[in-house]
Design goal:
22 helices, elongated, mainly alpha
């Protein structure tokens, strides 16, 4: 009789699914064999019963046959359960297979999704590049149209050589970017000087009209902060000039100056210095070392070094530019005074105050003699000299200069000073005396008007003087006088920004009284005294 061998329970816990299925198949085979064996025994017992005659023996055989039947039933039940397990295994295999198919389909969909994302990103990049190309083409189109207009303009305005000989010297391209204290409207124009043009023409070179026009356009873009337009415009013009005239040509040097100052305005000092050195080399080679254009480039290079704090390197360049201008233009020319101003600022940053005073005084003398005491450069130079005095602690000398500027501005608008016609600093000191005497008279001072507006306070030379003298009063403890000047400066700046013209329409009492309460809070700021320089160095083309 066959015997069934079952695996231990300990081993069953460690069996895998495949091992369980394999063992189940073995059990089915064993049960099938056992069933066949039991059926065979049962059949033999039934045959035996038929042959037996005694009741006892027949009963015993019947009992054995019943036991065998029960055993066969149990075996059939086990076979049924085993078959259910096999069917369940097949079902699980089918589910697993379907699961693998679904996973494969998910992976394929993920790959397709990723591919679509990549395609979308590539398409977006192509679209962005296309938009950039379109914008670039539009800018190139505008530039080409502008260059075409320049050529037409150049053809229209180019005079013959005989006309040039008959004409008196006219405008010269002096300042590419104006001084920081120039008025905004003036900053968009050229500073003309006929004597400088005469010297330039004697040197055999005159700046072409198209470069003047290009210079105006570059200034306009630079003032708007549109360097992405100004720089390509300069580079394209420079490339065109180099193709038509060669690299070593004065027009190329002029264009290099313009591009360098645009770079300087972007704080790209290294690129600007490289371009200016290149322009200096070209001008020295083509125009000579003592040409005014060489002096202009030397001045630009000195200003660039000054902005980078390299005052020692800038000073010899500025001195050489001064020597050239004195030699070509004469020692009392306004351009010489301008160069003296630049040189004084460089020396002031190095603490060479004796030289600073000498240069400013000489520049002031030239301006007063050649341009008159009412020229804006006179007030600017006095302001600069006063700042030099302040750095040395010469407060009395600085105060005298500030008062001279304000008095001259008042006289220019309202006439000579007398008891009824006083400049603003006198009113400020009167209010200071009244505040110290602890009695404040609110009686209006007479008709005063907006003299600060009429005298180009918005340029901000006189406005700067008001603030500086106010700071000086504050240092001296004259708080009421300081607040008076500061309030006047603030009012004038606001009115210049809003376009209000207060000429003959503003009383001193309106300036000095309206915000009297608000000005009280500035008394606590005695330790915060700051002076402003009247001007910075100027660049030229």
């Amino acid at each position: 009789m066959s015997t069934m061998v079952y695996p231990r329970e300990e081993k069953l816990e460690k069996l895998s699914q495949e091992e369980i299925i394999s063992n189940t198949k073995l059990v089915i085979q064993g049960l099938e064999a056992l069933k066949n064996e039991h059926n065979s025994i049962l059949h033999s017992l039934l045959e035996t019963i038929k042959c037996l005659k005694k009741d006892e023996e027949a009963n015993l055989v019947h009992e054995k046959s019943n036991l065998l039947r029960k055993s066969v039933e149990m075996i059939e039940l086990g076979l049924g359960e085993a078959q259910v397990m096999m069917a369940l295994s097949n079902h699980l295999n089918a589910v697993e297979s379907e699961k693998q198919k679904l996973r494969a389909q998910v992976r394929r969909l993920c790959q397709e999704n990723q591919w679509l994302r990549d395609e979308l990103a590539n398409t977006q990049q192509k679209l962005q590049k296309s938009e950039q190309s379109v914008a670039q083409l539009e800018e190139e189109k505008k530039h080409l149209e502008f260059m075409n207009q320049l050529k037409k303009y150049d053809e229209d305005v180019s005079p013959t050589q005989e006309e040039k000989d008959r004409e008196t010297p006219k405008d010269s391209l002096d300042d590419l970017f104006p001084n920081d204290e120039e008025e905004h409207g003036q900053g968009m124009q050229h500073q003309h000087n006929s004597a400088a043009v005469a010297a330039a023409q004697q040197g055999g070179y005159e700046i072409p009209a198209r470069l003047r026009t290009l210079h105006n356009l570059v200034i306009q873009y630079a003032s708007q902060g549109r360097y992405e337009v100004a720089v390509p415009l300069c580079k394209q013009a420079l490339e065109d000039l180099e193709k038509t005239s060669g690299h070593d040509h004065p027009d190329v040097a002029t264009m290099l100056n313009i591009l360098a100052l645009v770079y300087r305005d972007q704080n790209k000092y290294k690129e600007a210095a490289h371009l200016l050195n290149d322009a200096l080399s070209i001008r020295e080679k083509t125009l000579g070392k003592d040409h005014p254009a060489v002096a202009a480039t030397l001045n630009n290079l000195a200003v660039l070094y000054g902005k980078r704090g390299k005052y020692k390197e800038a000073e010899p360049l500025c001195k050489r530019a001064l020597e050239i201008r004195e030699k070509v233009l004469g020692k009392d020319h306004p351009d010489v005074a301008k160069q003296l101003n630049n040189l004084a600022l460089l020396c002031q940053n190095q603490g060479k105050y004796e030289e600073v005073e000498y240069y400013y005084c000489r520049a002031l003398e030239i301006y007063e003699c050649r341009l008159g005491p009412d020229d804006p450069n006179v007030a600017k130079t006095k302001n600069n000299l006063a700042s030099c005095y302040l750095k040395q602690g010469k407060y009395k000398e600085a105060e005298i200069l500030y008062k001279e500027i304000l008095t001259r501005a008042h006289e220019k608008e309202f006439g000579s000073v007398d008891a009824e016609n006083k400049p603003i600093w006198m009113h400020a000191e009167e209010r200071e005396e009244m505040s110290k005497g602890k009695h404040r008279d609110n009686t209006p001072y007479g008709e005063y008007g907006g003299w600060y507006k009429a005298c180009k306070v918005n340029s901000p030379t006189v406005n700067t003087t008001l603030r500086n003298l106010g700071a000086l009063y504050r240092r001296q403890g004259k708080l009421e006088a300081a607040e008076t000047l500061e309030e006047c400066a603030i009012r004038s700046r606001k009115q210049s920004n809003t376009g209000i013209d207060p000429i003959h329409g503003t009383r001193v009492v309106e300036i000095l009284k309206d915000t009297e309460g608000d000005r009280r809070r500035s008394r606590d700021s005695l330790t915060s005294v700051k002076y402003e320089s009247g001007s910075e160095t100027g660049e030229e083309a």
